[in-house]
Amino acid sequence: MTIRVIPRLDIKGPNLVKGIHLEGLRVLGKPEWFARRYYEQGADELLYMDVVASLYGRNSLLEIVTRTAKDIFIPLTVGGGLRSTDDIKAILRAGADKVALNTAAIREPELVRSASRQFGSSTIVVSIEAIRQPNGVYEAYTDNGRERTGIDAVEWASEAAKLGAGEILLTSVDREGTGSGFELELLHQVAAVTDVPVIVCGGAGRVEHALAAAAAGADALALASILHYQLLDELKLAQLAFHEEGNVEYLRGGRSFGKVQPTALSKLKAYLVDNGVCCRFPV
Hints:
The protein has helices at about 30-40, 55, 60-70, 85-95, 105, 110-120, 155-165, 185-195, 205-215, 225-230, 250, 265-275; strands at about 5-10, 15-20, 25-30, 45-50, 75-80, 100, 125-130, 140, 145-150, 165-170, 200, 220-225. By secondary structure, the protein is of the alpha/beta class.
């Protein structure tokens, strides 16, 4: 099996942002710039998530997706605010290869079935944002990890696959942005109840965390902080305009990575290969 490495780019307005537990979003730069560098470094796919789409009831990534798809030739998954087959059709026409559904899929599970029939199951990714409860059960949340659903995340993963989802994007909100490692128990439980690929997301802070997730059965790794922070050193702030939206004090005042040990995508893949995990390298 070849494991895929997928940079995750969370988008707010025109900017790439990053938070902790999907909150406290800080501007990192222009998503197109990061996307291009990841493509050059050998990313297998890219994941674009509009992290404020649910607040406004729409996905605002059409222009960004159109620009990205013109010169980046790897699969592009887009999520956030997609609520109907018409929304899905529009984002696919803009250049996306797959869509990630969370809020709409939980509110209307039949959307997963109808979308997979219309566009193909390989096009439909069900995104699950999970938080571990005091009783040990993982609950699925919507609206970028803000709203409770009362739904068991593991049971929902199983149902989503039966409805026609081609992949599960599994994000631990507890671990997201912390650099403390993936929620491997959640990964184990979901992998045990579904036979579709599982993309694990949330918590990678070192290359060892990527190896642990691969060993635990992840089919793909969606990574953000560990890759984004490495590229920040290449940014030239004077040449980029960040005034449009967002908290830029994080960039202006110096950076603290906490538990995250940034690495280049190509180096992360080389580490996985050296430890017996197959990865695709650019020609």
